[in-house]
Protein backbone atom coordinates (compact mmCIF):
# COMPACT_ATOMS: atom_id res chain seq x y z
CA UNK A 1 0.00 0.00 0.00
CA UNK A 2 2.82 2.37 0.87
CA UNK A 3 4.45 1.73 -2.50
CA UNK A 4 1.21 2.64 -4.29
CA UNK A 5 0.98 5.90 -2.35
CA UNK A 6 4.60 6.72 -3.20
CA UNK A 7 3.94 6.04 -6.89
CA UNK A 8 0.84 8.24 -6.90
CA UNK A 9 2.72 10.96 -5.04
CA UNK A 10 5.50 10.83 -7.61
CA UNK A 11 2.92 11.36 -10.33
CA UNK A 12 1.18 14.33 -8.72
CA UNK A 13 4.33 16.04 -7.51
CA UNK A 14 5.29 16.70 -11.14
CA UNK A 15 1.94 18.31 -11.98
CA UNK A 16 1.34 22.00 -11.44
CA UNK A 17 -1.04 22.44 -8.46
CA UNK A 18 -3.22 24.81 -10.48
CA UNK A 19 -4.15 21.99 -12.87
CA UNK A 20 -5.02 19.72 -9.98
CA UNK A 21 -7.27 22.32 -8.40
CA UNK A 22 -8.87 22.95 -11.78
CA UNK A 23 -9.80 19.27 -12.01
CA UNK A 24 -11.11 19.38 -8.44
CA UNK A 25 -13.25 22.39 -9.38
CA UNK A 26 -14.67 20.52 -12.37
CA UNK A 27 -15.64 17.64 -10.09
CA UNK A 28 -17.34 20.11 -7.75
CA UNK A 29 -19.14 21.70 -10.69
CA UNK A 30 -20.43 18.31 -11.81
CA UNK A 31 -21.85 17.54 -8.36
CA UNK A 32 -23.45 20.98 -8.14
CA UNK A 33 -24.83 20.74 -11.68
CA UNK A 34 -26.16 17.22 -11.13
CA UNK A 35 -28.02 18.24 -8.00
CA UNK A 36 -29.46 21.43 -9.47
CA UNK A 37 -30.67 19.84 -12.70
CA UNK A 38 -32.82 17.42 -10.71
CA UNK A 39 -35.00 20.42 -9.83
CA UNK A 40 -34.76 21.78 -13.40
CA UNK A 41 -32.56 24.77 -12.74
CA UNK A 42 -31.28 26.71 -15.74
CA UNK A 43 -27.93 25.30 -16.84
CA UNK A 44 -26.42 28.69 -17.61
CA UNK A 45 -27.36 29.93 -14.15
CA UNK A 46 -25.86 26.80 -12.61
CA UNK A 47 -22.55 27.40 -14.36
CA UNK A 48 -22.56 31.15 -13.63
CA UNK A 49 -23.26 30.83 -9.91
CA UNK A 50 -20.61 28.16 -9.50
CA UNK A 51 -17.94 29.92 -11.56
CA UNK A 52 -18.37 33.31 -9.90
CA UNK A 53 -18.33 31.71 -6.46
CA UNK A 54 -15.18 29.73 -7.26
CA UNK A 55 -13.50 32.91 -8.47
CA UNK A 56 -14.41 34.63 -5.22
CA UNK A 57 -13.08 31.65 -3.27
CA UNK A 58 -9.84 31.72 -5.26
CA UNK A 59 -9.34 35.42 -4.51
CA UNK A 60 -9.97 34.93 -0.80
CA UNK A 61 -7.67 31.91 -0.73
CA UNK A 62 -4.87 33.91 -2.31
CA UNK A 63 -5.37 36.99 -0.14
CA UNK A 64 -5.41 34.93 3.06
CA UNK A 65 -2.29 33.03 1.99
CA UNK A 66 -0.44 36.27 1.27
CA UNK A 67 -1.38 37.78 4.61
CA UNK A 68 -0.38 34.65 6.52
CA UNK A 69 2.92 34.26 4.66
CA UNK A 70 3.74 37.91 4.01
CA UNK A 71 7.21 37.54 5.50
CA UNK A 72 8.14 35.35 2.53
CA UNK A 73 7.15 38.10 0.10
CA UNK A 74 8.38 41.15 2.00
CA UNK A 75 12.00 40.39 1.08
CA UNK A 76 11.31 40.95 -2.64
CA UNK A 77 11.72 44.38 -4.17
CA UNK A 78 9.04 46.29 -6.05
CA UNK A 79 9.28 46.82 -9.78
CA UNK A 80 6.80 48.46 -12.15
CA UNK A 81 7.19 45.90 -14.96
CA UNK A 82 5.97 42.28 -14.70
CA UNK A 83 9.23 40.96 -16.14
CA UNK A 84 12.99 41.29 -15.74
CA UNK A 85 15.61 40.91 -18.39
CA UNK A 86 19.14 39.74 -17.72
CA UNK A 87 21.10 39.32 -20.91
CA UNK A 88 19.15 36.98 -23.16
CA UNK A 89 16.97 35.65 -20.34
CA UNK A 90 13.60 37.02 -19.24
CA UNK A 91 11.86 36.29 -15.95
CA UNK A 92 8.19 36.98 -15.32
CA UNK A 93 6.28 37.73 -12.12
CA UNK A 94 9.30 37.44 -9.82
CA UNK A 95 9.13 40.85 -8.13
CA UNK A 96 6.36 42.70 -6.33
CA UNK A 97 3.55 43.40 -6.92
CA UNK A 98 3.48 40.89 -9.77
CA UNK A 99 4.69 38.02 -7.63
CA UNK A 100 1.49 38.26 -5.63
CA UNK A 101 -0.39 36.95 -8.67
CA UNK A 102 1.53 33.69 -9.00
CA UNK A 103 -1.42 31.47 -8.08
CA UNK A 104 -0.06 28.74 -10.34
CA UNK A 105 2.56 28.04 -7.69
CA UNK A 106 -0.17 26.76 -5.38
CA UNK A 107 -0.02 29.52 -2.78
CA UNK A 108 -3.65 29.17 -1.65
CA UNK A 109 -5.43 28.59 1.65
CA UNK A 110 -7.81 25.86 0.55
CA UNK A 111 -10.12 25.83 3.56
CA UNK A 112 -10.65 29.59 3.29
CA UNK A 113 -11.37 29.15 -0.43
CA UNK A 114 -14.04 26.52 0.21
CA UNK A 115 -15.82 28.48 2.93
CA UNK A 116 -15.72 31.65 0.83
CA UNK A 117 -17.16 29.65 -2.07
CA UNK A 118 -19.88 28.22 0.18
CA UNK A 119 -20.85 31.63 1.52
CA UNK A 120 -20.87 33.41 -1.84
CA UNK A 121 -22.79 30.75 -3.75
CA UNK A 122 -25.38 30.70 -0.96
CA UNK A 123 -25.90 34.44 -1.43
CA UNK A 124 -26.21 34.02 -5.20
CA UNK A 125 -28.75 31.20 -5.20
CA UNK A 126 -30.92 32.61 -2.42
CA UNK A 127 -30.82 36.39 -2.86
CA UNK A 128 -29.98 36.78 -6.55
CA UNK A 129 -31.53 33.72 -8.21
CA UNK A 130 -34.15 33.29 -5.48
CA UNK A 131 -34.16 29.50 -5.81
CA UNK A 132 -35.93 27.37 -3.23
CA UNK A 133 -33.33 26.68 -0.57
CA UNK A 134 -34.28 23.07 0.05
CA UNK A 135 -33.68 22.38 -3.65
CA UNK A 136 -30.09 23.67 -3.73
CA UNK A 137 -28.97 23.18 -0.12
CA UNK A 138 -27.42 19.78 -0.72
CA UNK A 139 -25.83 20.50 -4.13
CA UNK A 140 -24.20 23.60 -2.65
CA UNK A 141 -22.81 21.87 0.43
CA UNK A 142 -21.86 18.58 -1.18
CA UNK A 143 -19.97 20.24 -4.04
CA UNK A 144 -17.95 22.18 -1.48
CA UNK A 145 -17.32 19.20 0.78
CA UNK A 146 -16.13 16.96 -2.06
CA UNK A 147 -13.73 19.63 -3.33
CA UNK A 148 -12.41 20.07 0.20
CA UNK A 149 -12.08 16.32 0.69
CA UNK A 150 -10.18 15.75 -2.55
CA UNK A 151 -7.95 18.71 -1.72
CA UNK A 152 -7.12 17.05 1.61
CA UNK A 153 -6.23 13.84 -0.19
CA UNK A 154 -4.05 15.74 -2.64
CA UNK A 155 -2.23 17.69 0.07
CA UNK A 156 -1.86 14.52 2.11
CA UNK A 157 -0.17 12.83 -0.84
CA UNK A 158 2.24 15.71 -1.38
CA UNK A 159 3.14 15.98 2.30
CA UNK A 160 3.06 12.22 2.98
CA UNK A 161 0.40 12.79 5.61
CA UNK A 162 -1.85 9.75 5.94
CA UNK A 163 -4.17 11.47 8.40
CA UNK A 164 -5.04 14.19 5.87
CA UNK A 165 -5.76 11.56 3.23
CA UNK A 166 -8.09 9.68 5.57
CA UNK A 167 -9.94 12.87 6.50
CA UNK A 168 -10.28 13.74 2.83
CA UNK A 169 -11.64 10.30 2.02
CA UNK A 170 -14.21 10.58 4.83
CA UNK A 171 -15.44 13.94 3.53
CA UNK A 172 -15.55 12.73 -0.06
CA UNK A 173 -17.93 9.84 0.71
CA UNK A 174 -20.52 12.03 2.48
CA UNK A 175 -22.53 12.66 -0.73
CA UNK A 176 -22.42 8.93 -1.50
CA UNK A 177 -23.99 8.19 1.89
CA UNK A 178 -26.70 10.74 1.15
CA UNK A 179 -27.31 9.23 -2.30
CA UNK A 180 -27.63 5.71 -0.88
CA UNK A 181 -30.06 7.02 1.73
CA UNK A 182 -32.19 8.67 -0.97
CA UNK A 183 -32.37 5.43 -2.95
CA UNK A 184 -33.37 3.49 0.15
CA UNK A 185 -36.14 5.96 0.95
CA UNK A 186 -37.33 5.85 -2.66
CA UNK A 187 -37.99 2.13 -2.30
CA UNK A 188 -39.34 2.11 1.25
CA UNK A 189 -41.58 5.22 1.28
CA UNK A 190 -44.13 5.68 -1.49
CA UNK A 191 -45.50 9.06 -0.39
CA UNK A 192 -43.40 11.61 -2.27
CA UNK A 193 -43.94 14.55 0.09
CA UNK A 194 -43.19 12.48 3.18
CA UNK A 195 -40.14 10.92 1.53
CA UNK A 196 -38.75 14.31 0.56
CA UNK A 197 -39.14 15.71 4.06
CA UNK A 198 -37.50 12.69 5.69
CA UNK A 199 -34.61 12.89 3.23
CA UNK A 200 -34.16 16.59 3.97
CA UNK A 201 -34.11 15.97 7.73
CA UNK A 202 -31.58 13.16 7.38
CA UNK A 203 -29.48 15.24 5.00
CA UNK A 204 -29.53 18.23 7.34
CA UNK A 205 -28.32 16.00 10.16
CA UNK A 206 -25.56 14.64 7.92
CA UNK A 207 -24.48 18.16 6.93
CA UNK A 208 -24.49 19.29 10.56
CA UNK A 209 -22.37 16.35 11.69
CA UNK A 210 -19.95 16.95 8.82
CA UNK A 211 -19.58 20.63 9.74
CA UNK A 212 -18.99 19.71 13.38
CA UNK A 213 -16.36 17.17 12.34
CA UNK A 214 -14.52 19.68 10.14
CA UNK A 215 -14.65 22.39 12.80
CA UNK A 216 -13.43 19.99 15.47
CA UNK A 217 -10.49 18.81 13.37
CA UNK A 218 -9.40 22.37 12.63
CA UNK A 219 -9.76 23.59 16.19
CA UNK A 220 -7.50 20.78 17.39
CA UNK A 221 -4.58 22.33 15.48
CA UNK A 222 -2.98 25.74 15.49
CA UNK A 223 -4.83 27.67 12.82
CA UNK A 224 -4.46 31.13 11.37
CA UNK A 225 -6.98 33.89 11.99
CA UNK A 226 -8.39 33.40 8.51
CA UNK A 227 -8.94 29.70 9.13
CA UNK A 228 -10.48 30.41 12.54
CA UNK A 229 -12.87 32.89 10.96
CA UNK A 230 -13.68 30.27 8.32
CA UNK A 231 -14.47 27.70 11.02
CA UNK A 232 -16.79 30.15 12.77
CA UNK A 233 -18.40 31.01 9.43
CA UNK A 234 -19.00 27.33 8.70
CA UNK A 235 -20.64 26.80 12.09
CA UNK A 236 -22.88 29.85 11.68
CA UNK A 237 -23.72 28.92 8.08
CA UNK A 238 -24.75 25.44 9.14
CA UNK A 239 -26.93 26.66 12.01
CA UNK A 240 -28.70 29.39 10.03
CA UNK A 241 -29.11 27.41 6.82
CA UNK A 242 -30.42 24.35 8.64
CA UNK A 243 -33.16 26.51 10.16
CA UNK A 244 -33.99 28.05 6.78
CA UNK A 245 -34.02 24.58 5.25
CA UNK A 246 -36.57 23.29 7.76
CA UNK A 247 -38.73 26.38 7.25
CA UNK A 248 -38.56 26.09 3.47
CA UNK A 249 -39.37 22.38 3.30
CA UNK A 250 -42.44 22.92 5.49
CA UNK A 251 -43.64 25.98 3.60
CA UNK A 252 -46.99 25.21 1.98
CA UNK A 253 -47.18 25.28 -1.78
CA UNK A 254 -49.86 27.50 -3.28
CA UNK A 255 -52.09 25.48 -5.59
CA UNK A 256 -55.49 25.99 -7.21
CA UNK A 257 -57.64 23.06 -6.16
CA UNK A 258 -60.86 23.91 -8.01
CA UNK A 259 -61.61 25.86 -11.12
CA UNK A 260 -64.49 27.57 -9.30
CA UNK A 261 -62.04 29.16 -6.88
CA UNK A 262 -60.85 31.46 -9.65
CA UNK A 263 -63.18 34.41 -10.16
CA UNK A 264 -64.30 34.93 -13.74
CA UNK A 265 -63.39 38.21 -15.37
CA UNK A 266 -65.74 39.70 -17.99
CA UNK A 267 -64.15 41.64 -20.80
CA UNK A 268 -66.23 43.98 -22.92
CA UNK A 269 -64.93 44.91 -26.33
CA UNK A 270 -66.39 48.19 -27.57
CA UNK A 271 -64.04 48.63 -30.48
CA UNK A 272 -64.14 46.68 -33.75
CA UNK A 273 -61.42 44.12 -34.28
CA UNK A 274 -59.48 44.45 -37.50
CA UNK A 275 -58.10 41.32 -39.09
Entry keywords:
mainly alpha; two-stranded antiparallel sheet; 10 helices; 2 strands; 275 residues
What does this entry look like structurally?
The chain has helices spanning 2-12, 17-37, 43-68, 70-74, 110-128, 133-158, 162-172, 174-188, 192-220, 225-249; strands spanning 83-86, 89-92. The chain has 275 residues and is mainly alpha-helical. The protein has a domain at 2-39 and 131-250. A two-stranded antiparallel ribbon has the order 1-2. β1 (83-86) and β2 form a beta hairpin. α2 (17-37) packs antiparallel against α3 (43-68), α3 runs antiparallel to α5 and α9 (192-220) runs antiparallel to α10 (225-249). The longest helix has 29 residues, at 192-220. It is globular, with a radius of gyration of 24 Å. The model is unreliable at 255-262 (pLDDT under 50).
Brief summary:
The chain has 275 residues and is an all-alpha fold. It has ten helices and two strands.
Along the chain, the helix and strand elements come as HHHHEEHHHHHH
Q: Low-confidence spans: pLDDT under 50, at least 5 residues?
A: 255-262
- The level of helicity is 55-70%
CA(first)-CA(last) distance: 81 Å
Topology:
Elements: H1 2-12, H2 17-37, H3 43-68, H4 70-74, E1 83-86, E2 89-92, H5 110-128, H6 133-158, H7 162-172, H8 174-188, H9 192-220, H10 225-249
Helix pairs in contact: 2-3, 2-6, 3-5, 5-6, 5-10, 6-7, 8-9, 9-10
